[in-house]
Amino acid sequence: MYDLIVIGSGPAGEKGAAQAAYFGKRVALVEREAVPGGASVNTGTVPSKTLRESALHLSGFRQRGFSECIDVRMTSISVRDFMYRKQLVVEREWKRIDDNLRRHDVERYSGIARFLSPTSIEVRNGDATTAIDAKVVLIATGSSPYRPSEVPFDGETVCDSDSILQMREIPKTLAVVGAGVIGCEYATMFAALGVDVHLIDGRTTLLPHVDREIVRVLLGEMQTRLGITLHLGVDVDSIEKAEGGLTIRLRDGSILQAGKVLYAAGRTSNTTDLNLDAAGVKTASRGLIVVNEQYQTNVPNIYAAGDVIGFPALASTSMEQARVAMVHAFDLKYKTRVASLLPYGIYTIPELAMAGMTEEECREKGIDYGVGRAHFRSNARGQIIGDTKGIIKLVFDANDLRLLGVHIVGENASELLHTGMMVMQFDGTINAFIDSVFNYPTLGEAYKYAAYDGLGSIAREKTNPGKARIRVKELT
Fold this sequence. Notes:
By secondary structure, the protein is of the alpha/beta class. Helices cover 33% and strands 24% of the residues.
């Protein structure tokens, strides 16, 4: 009997298995696919972000500072050009995961896992079946794109975020249905390649959980620089195959023609084949597994982590959830909770990143807050790389200057975020940036000037009560 069986080798499965094995537990891992890594490595995080880098390079977008004097764009971009780097990175991730599991002596089974009881799992590979038992089970099977029955998916012209990676040619026109994180990322990526992109969503706002000022910068770049046509506040009525492409009818009466449709409106948990009834595990809508704060299901020896439990469905948090689950399952006296402050990165063009509270949240909670901004156009490194639209925005307590939120749009936003996040993690103030020395020229130096701007706004507020607040409202 094993101490632990892990089902799935994505971020949660890999790290949960390694965590338990590190502390001497005998671990088995079951993976249904021929390669490890789950959606994160094979169809989601890693491939899409690698394709983004390819798009930035091949399109010349990253060389925007040179565009006035030299054309650095490739005149013709093939699917082979676009996909080449993605395949290299994915294969290296397969090797890294294999090496990690081998280093921790995790025993692996290939096949589809199915519960026979809370402690027994059947693994089916073709006609062969193997039964294995364990004291603890970690479900880390991830999620898949949600595919409504009325959408005519064919994997060629009507794709989800998995099948879009198998495309054989880059379309001239692309309709993206769903303006969430995945939809926005792919929309900007294809637009950078010169594709005519239409982004459609029934909601009237883009990325509602993101600071509105940051979203406005993204919207401006989407429409003016990338040429994306937005159709917000309108749902798709039908998608029909037509001569030479697709016809998309919107519920406001509009009709669009496109060579390809990417449908990216939500995901569903991969629990269908697990036979959870045999184990007594409870699920919610779209197969989401219900867990407590220790990622324990209603069955005490069965845990779940990652996309299979839903929000926030990030690779970074999935890893931590699995580690916390294993510490609790085996009473390891180690990591007892996932950090309350989580970083978010959205790999659109331009990139977005955020941690902590937005201005909108501060207003809703009645917090007396201040805002400090630094624009990349006023930063030497920003000028060097040609990013004149980027912003670092700090939201802080107006009374004690404690940093409450960091919001960034622009080059390397997801990397820059961690500097501000660590100050927040240790309950620091914006003075931490003023007291620090930053390399010059760097984008990181913008933190200092955002802090100075924040102090200036507070000083103006004290001198002219209400005036600075009006200015903040006008800017946001």
